[in-house]
Design goal:
mainly beta, 10 strands, 6-stranded mixed sheet, 4-stranded antiparallel sheet
Length: about 110
Amino acid sequence: EVQLVESGGDLVQPGGSLRLSCAASGFTFTRYAMSWSRQVPGKDRDLVATIFNTRMTTRYAPSVKGRFTISRDNAKNTVYLQMNSLKPEDTAVYYCSNGAGDWGQGTQVTVSS
């Protein structure tokens, strides 16, 4: 059974930082690109960042480029999202996914003073 379990979401002040983690199991982690997306109520889920399984190439949405960093630890089957200089508009539920269309349950990030 494929499992993607996100953690690390929290309430943080504007300008603060958070690191999200996604622990993967039930599939061959090294064969897939991994992504983070986010969603606010009433809106579509938006892709935030992707890290490919070959050469660790990364891609970012323009809104987070330079502030967020995606990384993966293949030995731990875990993907991370380091989020710096957080803004209120980063508030959302953050989801990780693999290249096979599997999704985690999400973790809430709230940026507010």
